[in-house]
Design goal:
Order of helices and strands: EEEEHEEEH
CATH architecture: 2-Layer Sandwich
Distance between the termini: 52 Å
CATH topology: Secreted effector protein pipB2 fold
Number of domains: 1
Helix content: 10-25%
Radius of gyration: 18 Å
Structural class: alpha/beta
CATH class: Alpha Beta
Largest sheet: 7 strands, mixed
Strand order of the largest sheet: 1-7-6-5-4-3-2
Length: 183
């Protein structure tokens, strides 16, 4: 069966957003070009790792002599996107992801594959992925957009439940019973 590829080479919008209240949120990677919109569900940890790894790549590129790809050190203000997600129709739940750099177009490349029965959700960026997927989301974004994407994603991830300063566990809206971890 051929792989269905949802490809976005120069998306109009690419964001991570959530639906639900802190503690019960579902994270989505949403990409739009024109009227084509794809939304894939992700775990909070996948979102956090994706933002971290994108920033790592951009920070490495900025150190190259002369910054040949014009990588911004911070988020360009004109690329900040704090809008809500557009209506979500989940395409698939993300399992394996890959992240790369295309120097020919100066773009970060994200590939996301549906979760399968053979993998665990802890395996966000695997060492080797040879299996043929039925579906893939491939997003290419320029360096400024990637920097803005990473910033927004970190903010979305950090907007969850507050953390207890004593036990380090999330505090629910209906209260918190502190359990001090054993040493």
């Amino acid at each position: 069966m051929p792989t269905t590829v949802h490809e976005f080479a120069w998306p109009d919008r690419v964001v991570v957003g959530t639906i639900g209240v802190p503690g019960q949120r579902t994270f989505y990677l949403q990409v739009r070009t024109g009227k084509q919109i794809v939304s894939i569900a992700m775990e909070k940890q996948q979102s956090a790792q994706l933002a971290e790894k994108i920033d790592e790549i951009l920070d490495q590129l900025i150190t190259l002599d002369g910054n040949p790809f014009s990588v911004p050190a911070s988020t360009p203000i004109e690329l900040v996107d704090n809008d809500q997600l557009e209506p979500v129709e989940e395409q698939f739940r993300t399992g394996v992801m890959s992240l790369g750099w295309d120097p020919t177009t100066a773009q970060i490349v994200i590939e996301a594959y549906p979760i399968t029965d053979l993998e665990t959700e802890d395996e966000v960026f695997p060492e080797d992925e040879d299996a043929e997927a039925a579906e893939v989301l491939r997003v290419r974004m320029p360096v400024g957009t990637a920097r803005a994407f990473a910033k927004r994603t970190r903010e979305i991830v950090g907007a969850g439940r507050p953390i207890c300063v004593i036990c380090g566990q999330p505090i629910d809206a209906d209260g918190h019973t502190c359990t001090i971890p054993e040493v």
